[in-house]
Design a protein that fits this description.
Layout: H1 4-21, H2 36-49, E1 58-61, H3 63-72, E2 76-79, E3 88-91, E4 95-99, E5 109-112
Parallel strand pairs: 1-4
Antiparallel strand pairs: 1-5, 2-3, 3-4
């Protein structure tokens, strides 16, 4: 069993690997409550260009994007899964998002297919 400090170190390591290995970057203006849905649609187009559906992905979002989602008042549902430590939020009844400090790596959103975790 690992302690919380070790878990945080592992989380930071994995997040760093995800962020530094990301290809096919989509440039966004600052995501706000007014353009959040437009940004999701832009990310959805990029996902299709890369032969996957955004609905299948886990989307890591920065704390600022999480705030924009709340302020935009789009439909959200929090999913509390016993076997998963991060809070997963379903946005627009389609997309699974997890808040993470990806802004430390220069990102606002990163879409990652679940198979990338295997």
């Amino acid at each position: 069993m690992i302690n919380r400090g070790e878990a945080a170190d592992i989380d930071n390591f994995v997040l760093n690997k995800i962020a530094t290995s990301t290809t096919n970057k989509v440039e966004f203006a600052e995501i706000t409550k007014d353009n959040f849905v437009r940004s999701i649609n832009q990310l959805k187009k990029q996902a299709k260009a890369n032969k996957f559906e955004l609905e299948e992905a886990i989307i890591f979002i920065s704390p600022d994007v999480a705030t924009a989602i709340v302020e935009s008042k789009v439909e959200t549902v929090n999913l509390n899964l016993e076997t998963v430590s991060p809070d997963i939020t379903r946005v627009l009844n389609k997309y699974s998002v997890v808040e993470a400090n990806i802004d430390d790596y220069g990102y606002q959103m990163i879409a990652l297919l679940p198979t990338a975790f295997s």
